[in-house]
Amino acid sequence: MRHPFKTNIFWFILIITFFLAYRLVDSQESQLGQLGWGEFITYTENGLVDELNINGEQIEAKLNEAGREHLGEKLKEKGDLKVGKIEIPTKITAVGPRQGIPDERLKYFEAQDQKGELKFSFIAEEKETFLQAFLLSWLPMLFLLGIFFMFMRQMQGNSGRAMSFGKSRARMLNENSKKVTFADVAGVEEAKEELKEVVDFLKNPQKFTKLGGRIPKGVLLMGSPGTGKTLLAKSVAGEADVPFFSISGSDFVEMFVGVGASRVRDLFEQAKKHSPCIIFIDEIDAVGRQRGAGLGGGHDEREQTLNQLLVEMDGFEHNEGVILVAATNRPDVLDPALLRPGRFDRRVTVNRPDVKGREMILRVHTRKVPLDESCDLDTIAKGTPGFSGADLENLVNEAALEAARHDQNLVFMRDFEFAKDKVIMGAERRSMIISDHEKKVTAYHEAGHALVAILLPGTDPVHKVTIIPRGRALGVTQQLPSGDRLSMTKDYAEKRIAILMGGRIAEEIIFNQITTGAGQDIVMATDTARSMVCEWGMSLKLGPLAYGKKDEQVFLGRGNNGGSKDYSEQTAREIDNEIRQIVTDGYDTARKLIEDNMDGLEGIAQGLLEFETLDASDVKMLADGSSLEDLRDKKNSTDQREKEADERQKKLNTKRNAQQSELEKLVETDGESLNSRIDQLELSEDAAKLIKAPESSDEVAEPKLGAIAELDQVVPHPSESEDKKTEDSDDDLPPSLLGPRK
Fold first, then answer.
1. Do 227 and 203 reside in the same domain of the chain?
2. Are residues 440 and 574 both part of a single domain?
3. Residue whose C-alpha is closest to residue 270's, from 300, 246, 288, 253
4. Whole domain around residue 100: which residue ranges?
5. E runs forming strands in 414-562
6. 588 and 440, same structural domain?
7. Closest by alpha carbon to 313, among 267, 350, 348?
8. Nearest alpha-carbon partner for 380 in 341, 353, 340, 417
9. Are 732 and 726 in contact (CB under 8 A)?
10. Are 696 and 709 within 8 A, CB to CB?
11. Percent over 70 (pLDDT), the chain
């Protein structure tokens, strides 16, 4: 291995050599026209020079034709013109004597200039300062030395970075960082209780050790993405008054062999120095995947990292006061040695929240969102089954953005409905160009889904039907269960298949053609039927047996590689027949329902073609035989009420802003006018005292402005009178609480 210092010396010498060679060649070229002082005087006295310029010691002269011929003969005599054709210089240069050019010689040149025989100019030499001499002499050398030391420092830095590869990249949260507490986590109460106990272990270990118990060494948080595993770990860091190290599983393994194991050792060494403490590893499946031969059959760097992690968690040396908290959404691929007691003593499953948990999560995320009184978080929670904590946070954010687009000061229930449709079905693609025929086919397709879903009892209620393209679909029929569905009955699964077949059947009946629009419906129906037969044991003919074993190749990820057949060819044919029979039965059920209710199918399809989107009440109304005229009247009435509510809200917002501005000015008012204004406001005694209090510090000014909140108790929200039809006049608004300012 070559030493970096020797390499730098080589490059430094090479640069100096090129620099000196350039100076040497340049000096040789310039010597062709350079003369000594005595020879230069000879040129001037013999009339070989037309123009002469003297600048200090630097002398330059322009030769005439005779001078050039004379110079050429001199160069030939020296042998400088033997090789190639070199043009004879038209100018010559010389350096004056050290003691300076004699005055007599200068007077001679001036006399020649006056006679017109020589054009002469003279600039006296300026005395060179010490700084100029120093810079001209030493600056180039200092510049080269600076480049050399810069190279040396860079090489030292690179070697230092190479040595730091084995250092842990864990970040320790400082005390000044924004803390997340258990109050910011909702909907996962059981997981919170488990982690609260871990915090108690660290704060008061004697409470548990005096009875012979030991502090758990590890807690594994398992759950699907978005359920709040990382947020739970952050809350532990905010609650526990101990150091908290955070690192991702992907931060261990690098391109160099041995780096992962070295970083694990360094991480636990840092943790021991700060004991008691907590280490959090996010996405631990990146390094904790089950050990195996792998595709190449060679040694796996990740295995070495995992081995070191196993040793540090429960090896020969005992780590006291270091608790490892890890999170993963793939617990099935983790190594069994990592999951055993003594390493991860506790495995906490973080499930998707139920309806009560969703309501609690919504309350956490809407703390800083101004909600209208029409917003019912319980209703929103019931209408979002299967949503994770991250989904609900996104829902609240989308609702707030929708309200901001319409310049609203509050977020209404309709904003949450818009956000829910966007999250579930995708964003609307109104710019997509669809032909009238395709639009009509899509309308009847979605009408078939909706009609079967309404007519079959025990299915999830239809929430909304639209033929506006969303995501990758041309239309969507959205069903939302009335509650959390934790299991599925055979009857429900069969009806689900019938609903999926409804769109294709409607296309067949109306257009006598089938399209690719039902492709995904057929895939979902087939998958459901296959699961009924092979996994859930819902086939009467084949019995309660599971057919097919899923392959678990660790290096490809468990459960992602299909499965192997553990049954005979005869059984395979029977499985295929059962799957075909289940799908066919659902198809026949849906076809009979649609053929018996063609008026409902036609009504829903025509409603979709006219309004593009229908809610649950609209679909039920058309399925029951109501006409499009009735639906138009209903929608016009609803639109009118919403428009009136919006107008009232705008006026109320204007009034509120004016009142708030007046109250803020009131804080600065003094004297008798202050007392009269307080009487007009009818504020409480506490609020009046706050306003009258002298502002001796910043702590008083903020509570004064808090009195503005009392206005909300007087000014009603538009939702309180939404059902009342009022005329568009200022009489509908509450009287001003402040009156004209004097």
1. yes
2. yes
3. 246
4. 34-123
5. 462-466, 476-479, 549-550
6. yes
7. 267
8. 417
9. yes
10. no
11. 63
Report the number of distinct structural domains present in the chain: 4
Instruction: For residues 590 and 442, state if they share a domain.
Output: yes
Does residue 635 surpass a pLDDT of 50? yes
Contact 471, 522 (CB under 8 A): no
Before 89, cis peptide (omega within 30)?
no
Between 289 and 137, the more confident residue is 289
Question: How many Cα atoms occupy the beta-carbon half-sphere of 691 within 13 Å?
Answer: 29
pTM of the full structure: 0.61
**337/363 same-domain check:** no
Q: Are residues 282 and 227 in the same domain?
A: yes
Among residues 446, 578, 644, 662, the one annotated as catalytic is 446
Q: Looking at 589, 608, 626, which one is the last position of a domain?
A: 626
Same domain membership, residue 410 and residue 484: no
3-state secondary structure of 122: strand
**In CATH, what number is assigned to the domain containing residue 202?**
3.40.50.300
521 part of a folded domain: yes
Which residue in 379, 372, 328 sits closest to 358, CA to CA? 379
- Other CB atoms within a 10 A radius of the CB of residue 268 amount to 23
- Comparing C-alpha atoms, which of 315, 330, 294, 19 is closest to residue 148? 19
CA distances from 41 to 48, 93, 103, 178 (A): 10, 12, 14, 86
Length reported for the chain: 742
Write the DSSP symbol of residue 84.
S
* Amino acid, single-letter form, for residue 124: A
- Name the burial class of residue 666, with classes exposed (0-12), middle (13-18) and buried (19+) by CB atoms within 10 angstroms of its CB: buried
Cα 394 from Cα 389, distance rounded (Å): 9
Whether residue 91 has pLDDT greater than 50: yes
Share the mean pLDDT of the chain.
74
Q: Are 459 and 499 in contact (CB under 8 A)?
A: yes
For residue 446, indicate whether it is catalytic: yes
CA 360-363-364 angle, to 5 degrees, is 90
596 Cα distance to chain centroid:
52
pLDDT tens digits along 402-417 = 988 888 888 888 889 8
Q: How far apart are CA 95 and CA 100, in angstroms?
A: 10
Strand, coil or helix: 387: coil
Strand stretches in 513-600, DSSP E: 549-550, 563-564
DSSP code of residue 187:
S
The 10 Å Cβ neighbour count of residue 662 is: 20
**Rounded Cα distance, 628 and 604, in Å:** 9
Is the confidence at residue 89, as pLDDT, over 70?
Answer: no
Residue 309 counted as domain residue: yes
Confidence of residue 449 (pLDDT cuts 50, 70, 90): very high
Based on the fold, state whether residues 492 and 591 are members of the same structural domain. Answer: yes
Residue pair 366/396 in contact by the 8 Å Cβ criterion: yes
Band of pLDDT at residue 51, cut at 50, 70 and 90: confident
pLDDT over 80 (residue 167): no
The residue type found at 91 is K
